[in-house]
Amino acid sequence: MKQYYKRISMPARYLINLVLIIAFLAAGNAIVSGGVINRAQSSIILQVGIYIILAVSLNIVTGYLGQLPLGHAGFMAVGAYAGAIFWKSGYGASLPAGLSIIIGLIFAGIVAAIFGIIIGVPALRLKGDYLAIITLGFGEIIRVCIINLPSITGGTPGLMGIPKYSTFLVVYIAVVISCAIIHMLMKSRHGRAILSIRENEIAAESCGINITYYKVMAFAVSSFFAGIAGALYAGYQGLLTPASFDFMASINILVMVVLGGMGSMIGSIIAAAVLTSLPLALQALNTYRMVIYSLLLIIVMIFKPSGLMGTYDFSMSRILERIINFKQIRADKKAKKAGDANG
Amino acid sequence: MLFLSQLINGLQLGSIYALVALGYSMVYGIIMLLNFAHGDIIMMGGYFALVAFAATTNPVLAIIATIVGCVVLAVVIEKVAYKPLRQAPRISLLITAIGVSLFLQNLAQLIWTANTRAFPSTEIIPAITFNVGGLSISLNIIVTICVSVLSMVLLAFIVQKTKMGKAMRAVSEDTEAAQLMGINVNNTITYTFIIGSALAGIGAILYCCRYPIVNPTMGSLLGLKAFVAAVLGGIGSIPGAMIGGFAIGLAEVFVTSIGLSAWTDAVVFAVLIVVLLIKPTGFMGASMTEKV
Question: In chain B, whose CA is at the least distance from the CA of A289?
Answer without folding.
Answer: B106
